[in-house]
Amino acid sequence: MTLSMDFHNEKNSGELIRAVEQGQHLQGLLEFFLFEVGPMFTDLIIGFVYVYTLFDVYMTLILMGVGLAYIYIGAKTTTWSVKARRNFNNAWRNEAKVQNEAIANWSTVSHFNRGSYEKERYSKSIDEFNAAEWKYYIAYYIGGSAQSVVMLIGRLAAFSMAVYRVAQGRAPVGNFVTLTLYWRSIESPLMQVSWSVRRLSSMLTDSERLLQLMMTKPTVASAPDAPDIVIKEGEVEFDHVDFAYDPRRPTLKDVSFTAKPGQTIALVGETGGGKSTIIKLLYRYYDIGSGSIRIDGQDIRNVNLDSLRDSFGLVPQDPALFNISLIENIRYARLDATDADIVEACRAAAIHDKIESFPDGYKSTVGERGVKLSGGELQRVSIARAILRQPKIVLLDEATSMIDAETEAVIQKAFRRLTAGRTTFIIAHRLSTIQHADLILVVGDGRVVERGTHEELIQRRGKYVALWSKQLSRDVGEVGEALGDVEPEQAVLGVATGTSEATATEEAGSDER
């Protein structure tokens, strides 16, 4: 969980879970060496010494030859079985991946009526898994069979020599009987050693993926002995910031701006322009390529990462909840919060009355990822989390883009309580929601192409006006034609101003109520 966002973006959760499950074999590795492998080798050495004292060096050489051949064949076949086991593990993780994707996206499967397709896809992954499993067990048991043949040949050779020595009168009959009885004591350690090698190889192969995960270092981490960030004012500066997810394709280019303490900064622009990336860089999900990001003069790369993220209150576009009670979901934002703190935050987020209307109130479970709640309820729970966190800086990532206008009015009121006196960044889909912003940044193609207040940008007749015209579902020129001699940009300004005034009137009425 400490790994960076780029790692989680590239990995499938089902695959990771299966890797962790298989990696649990590491827990018994030390006990396996101490209590199984060690005693087996001790028994084998004692057996060699006993045979040497009972017979002679020739019998001991036969026994050692059998032992070495037995171990060599075991090691050779283990190499084959390790490769087969690795393919088996990959097929097993792929089966878990396909299964997890189908279950996690069941609504998409249902919407497109792709149940049969997913069933076929899963059946194919099961077939691949079964084929890989068969190949592994074939490789595993071929080695055991070959070793049994070696052991049989060795036993015949040893018994033949013992019979010859007895027939020549060079050894008593009792030695042959003793060898026959003791041979099993020699075979057993050899078989155990071979079995242990195969088991050890399987354990290590199963744990390979977990070991890789454990050795993976996060690409974003706190510097050694980094101090906690100290935020007194909340001034945020982006200073000539460059960033790219892929070095071949820059995402942000020379982005610079300053958010004064308590200001609301709105980020607008076309999809893919870099708005969300700015928020991710501020949260330090990724490190920038060049330039610097400072909060109250402190470069965020030089402060403790946990303290930095604890300073933010984030309301995402698509909030996700755990399948536990509402009160525990909200407490997740601040684990030491009391029930009274949570109720107060929910009142501020305008969700308390709704929660109280549920049969189990705050103890109601919400389903996986919060599926039992509506979009507006999810957003207000997310706002309650942010309020409970008491952040220094607030980040709103298109938090009202997927809800209706009536619900949005309620949420906007909760937003005002959350952002009051706090530096706030808003990624806006609906431009009518950010007209009050102290600074609007129009982001396009990785650059800040325009900046200013709503009124300043409207008068500038640039990209912001074009975004407004698209939002109103009509061309700027058509707006001008509808209003006669009024300039197109002034027409948009009139519509935008009317929207702003209507919103302000509605908010005032809501506050009075």
TrEMBL record:
- Residue ranges annotated as transmembrane are 57-75
Write the record's keywords in alphabetical order, separated by commas.
Answer: ATP-binding, Membrane, Nucleotide-binding, Transmembrane, Transmembrane helix, Transport
Q: How does it sit in the membrane?
A: Multi-pass membrane protein
Q: Where is the composition biased (Low complexity)?
A: 496-507
Q: Where is the ABC transmembrane type-1 domain?
A: 1-202
Write out the annotated subcellular location.
Answer: Membrane
According to the UniProt entry, its GO molecular function terms are: ABC-type transporter activity; ATP binding; ATP hydrolysis activity
Q: Where is this region: Disordered?
A: 494-513
User: Which named protein is this?
Assistant: Heavy metal tolerance protein
Q: Name one GO cellular component term.
A: membrane
Q: Which organism is it from?
A: Friedmanniomyces endolithicus
Q: Which domain of life does the protein's organism represent?
A: Eukaryota
**Domain ABC transporter residues, every copy:** 236-470
Question: Which InterPro entries does the record cross-reference, listed alphabetically?
Answer: AAA+_ATPase (IPR003593), ABC1_TM_dom (IPR011527), ABC1_TM_sf (IPR036640), ABC_transporter-like_ATP-bd (IPR003439), ABC_transporter-like_CS (IPR017871), P-loop_NTPase (IPR027417), Type_1_exporter (IPR039421)
The record's similarity note reads: Belongs to the ABC transporter superfamily. ABCB family. Heavy Metal importer (TC 3.A.1.210) subfamily.
